Fold this sequence. Notes:
Blueprint: H1 3-20, E1 25-30, E2 33-36, E3 80-83, E4 87-92, E5 101-109, E6 127-132, E7 134-135, E8 140-141, H2 142-147, E9 154-157, E10 164-174, E11 187-198, E12 203-205, H3 222-225, E13 246-248, H4 259-270, H5 275-293, H6 296-307, H7 321-344
Amino acid sequence: xxxxxxxxxxxxxxxxxxxxxxxxxxxxxxxxxxxxxxxxxxxxxxxxxxxxxxxxxxxxxxxxxxxxxxxxxxxxxxxxxxxxxxxxxxxxxxxxxxxxxxxxxxxxxxxxxxxxxxxxxxxxxxxxxxxxxxxxxxxxxxxxxxxxxxxxxxxxxxxxxxxxxxxxxxxxxxxxxxxxxxxxxxxxxxxxxxxxxxxxxxxxxxxxxxxxxxxxxxxxxxxxxxxxxxxxxxxxxxxxxxxxxxxxxxxxxxxxxxxxxxxxxxxxxxxxxxxxxxxxxxxxxxxxxxxxxxxxxxxxxxxxxxxxxxxxxxxxxxxxxxxxxxxxxxxxxxxxxxxxxxxxx
Length: 345
Ligand SMILES: *[C@@H]1O[C@H](CO)[C@@H](O)[C@H](O)[C@H]1NC(C)=O
Ligand SMILES: *[C@@H]1O[C@H](CO)[C@@H](O)[C@H](O)[C@H]1NC(C)=O
Ligand SMILES: *[C@@H]1O[C@H](CO)[C@@H](O)[C@H](O)[C@H]1NC(C)=O
């Protein structure tokens, strides 16, 4: 083969890969071990912790079941071992072409079993553990910063979670086509990675921060309708709400320093009254903070949700979804309660 024809062939292949586009998780590296994913074009059923997807294409319908772990994601036969507090490197296929958008990572316990048996993703209760949109230091998309270095992995530090079997949902969101007439809108590339988290970690998510896919996103979310060329990057809001607050499994607050965890401790010290009393009290205070913060619509929801709450929000994602909604309300109000008190002091 001459140099010219080889060069032509290479450009053709590059072009073909861009037209076919996009990507998938090729390998992950954790605790000194490299786990390769299956071949998406021709799956061999090899042992891997990376749930196999049916191709390189995106999920564009946020109401699809495939929004959880990717198109026709299949359970696989391994788990990657990772220490709580340790890092997992996640490497996307090298031809990933998109630079505008965000990256998120979510985790869900595998229903009390090993993740190799956890097939019904409608049961997965996800909590967000990482999100990367715009790097405020450089004003650039993290997505572009990582992928402009071909082969650079995205690295996730696993929080100091209680040991167990967790499914990791890692996702890239491509916004390039949002403003394209007739385009597909935001393209989402979720992928599932089966993990066995080891160690003596004790954190669990606040139940109020657990969500389901589908449902966690709406097609109208600002983070999915953002047109990169038309809107300032600094205004970008990553979809799916804030990172989950993590608390010690016993229900006491943790060292993570998150606002709500701190609020919960302070509140339990300051207010040993029953929850019902607490709810009444906080509803009043919330109304006051509404006038100062001006976010009355979300506050109203919180009050409605909390008036009939009869049980303390549980830690971890095990509560039923109605309880979880109350949990959201109560924890939000608790945060506001403290702020209200501070204002008065
Ligand atoms: C993991 O294996 C792939 C080959 O399957 C290799 O290209 C990659 O460099 C390895 N990653 C690490 C971190 O060793
Ligand atoms: C992830 O970690 C690897 C290994 O330490 C490093 O080479 C790479 O630059 C890191 N990726 C990012 C985005 O920082
Ligand atoms: C909260 O509002 C009520 C009625 O609007 C008022 O009576 C009360 O003094 C307010 N409390 C604070 C702390 O502002």
